[in-house]
């Protein structure tokens, strides 16, 4: 038990770990894939345990149950976690949890500073206090279903060695920004009201500047903040401007342009080139999703295009 606590503490924070039934054999399993500002984790305890980390201080922790149940008391809230309800722990609120025997969770650990910087960028405001989420995540909502799908795509990319871990993937920062942005937009939090405000209209020249920047940097790991900086506007103004002028989000436009580049590269690639190489080089870490999007755009699989 003490060894398990030390191993998990080294990756998260110091905490108390108290067994519910000392007569049962105790086993734990923890797997981790680290990125730059967030990590993906699998954690399982074989028997019931009470976990008391207090305040996390430096990070947020999304806990998605895969098996079993848990009761999470954080701040003034109590969340009964199950396959329909996840939880997110805020760094400034004391937490105590009880995981039932055999409980397994997918954990997304997010650096507090990185998420705070992104929140300030999205709102255009200086935020003097730590961001706070509603800790109860209803996974049946459409927005959170999409976010969890993103998380699983990241897990698969990590398992394939395409991102996270030791992959040194050039587009790692883009993946993480997308995941954090979607979380801020999907789960109620202290800036949700800011994100609902309609930003000022974006001049056509700013949209043109953004699209020119995207097309000139398709092979580079550019983020939404990079594009907004080039257009001299906020990320939210950029999103609204693209929707008004082009009928799509900046991310959708970027992905379409990258698919066009991938289409060209596949048709002109030298013998021996792999589809996965082209996908990763054009910013698609998840090969399955790349293949689906490519076929929707060009009516055939990437491997057929590669055969010319």
UniProtKB/TrEMBL annotation:
Record has Transcription regulation as a keyword: yes
Family annotation (InterPro entries): AraC-bd_2, AraC_XylS_family_regulators, Homeodomain-like_sf, HTH_AraC, HTH_AraC-typ_CS
GO molecular function, one term: sequence-specific DNA binding
Keyword terms, alphabetized: DNA-binding, Transcription, Transcription regulation
Segments forming domain HTH araC/xylS-type: 208-308
Keyword Transmembrane helix assigned: no
Highest taxon of the lineage: Bacteria
Protein name listed in UniProt: AraC family transcriptional regulator
């Amino acid at each position: 038990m003490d060894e398990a606590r030390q191993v998990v503490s080294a990756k998260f924070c110091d905490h108390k770990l108290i067994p519910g039934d000392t007569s049962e054999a105790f086993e734990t399993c923890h797997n981790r894939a680290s990125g730059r500002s967030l990590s993906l984790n699998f954690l399982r305890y074989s028997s019931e345990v009470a976990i008391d980390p207090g305040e996390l201080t430096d990070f947020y922790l999304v806990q998605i149950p895969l098996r079993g149940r848990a009761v999470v008391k954080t701040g003034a809230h109590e969340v009964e976690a199950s396959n329909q309800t996840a939880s997110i722990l805020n760094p400034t609120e004391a937490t105590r949890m009880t995981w039932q025997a055999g409980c397994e969770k997918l954990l997304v650990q997010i650096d507090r500073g990185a998420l705070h910087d992104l929140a300030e960028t999205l709102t255009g405001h200086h935020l003097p206090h730590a961001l706070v989420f509603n800790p109860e995540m209803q996974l049946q909502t459409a927005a959170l279903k999409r976010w969890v799908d993103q998380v699983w795509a990241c897990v698969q990319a990590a398992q394939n060695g395409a991102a996270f871990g030791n992959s040194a993937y050039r587009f790692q920062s883009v993946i993480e920004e997308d995941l954090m942005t979607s979380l801020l937009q999907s789960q109620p939090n202290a800036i949700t009201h800011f994100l609902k405000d309609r930003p000022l209209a974006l001049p056509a020249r700013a949209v043109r500047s953004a699209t020119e920047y995207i097309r000139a940097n398709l092979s580079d790991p550019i983020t939404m903040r990079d594009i907004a900086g080039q257009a001299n506007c906020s990320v939210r103004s950029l999103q609204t401007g693209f929707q008004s002028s082009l009928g799509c989000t900046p991310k959708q436009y970027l992905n379409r342009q990258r698919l066009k580049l991938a289409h060209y590269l596949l048709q002109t690639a030298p013998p021996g080139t792999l589809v996965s190489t082209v996908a990763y080089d054009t910013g698609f870490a998840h090969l399955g999703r790349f293949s689906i999007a490519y076929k929707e755009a060009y009516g055939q699989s990437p491997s057929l295009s590669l055969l010319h």
